[in-house]
Amino acid sequence: PGTGLGEHSGSFGDPELSRSSLSIWPRGNLTAVVLGGGESDSRRLFPLTQYRTLPAVPFGGAYRIIDLLMSNMLNSGINKIHILTAFNSYSLNRHLQRTYDMSGGVPYGGDGYIEVVANSMSPDSQNWVTGTAGCVRQFMSYFDSNSKNRFIEDIMILPGDHVYSADYTPIIAYHRSTGADLTIVCRPVSGEQACRLGVVKLDAQNRIKTFSEKPSASELPELAMSDDEMRPFMMPTEEALRQQARRRMQTTLASRGSGPLGRLSAGAAKGGARMGGGGGGRVVLDTMTSVDETETRPGTTGYVGSCGIYIFKRSVLSEALKRHFKMQDFGRQIIPELIREGVKVHAYRLPGYWADVGGSVGDFYAANMSLLSDPPSISFNAPINSPFFKFPLTIPASQMMHSRVSGALVSAGCIVNRSDIRNSVIGSRSIIGPNVTIEDSVVFGASHYDHEKPLPRPLGPTFPPMGIGEGSIVRNAILDLNVRVGKNVQLVNKEGVYESADRGVQGMYVRDGIIVLAREAVVPDGTIM
Ligand code: ADQ
Question: What is the average pLDDT value for the chain, to the nearest integer?
Answer without folding.
Answer: 83
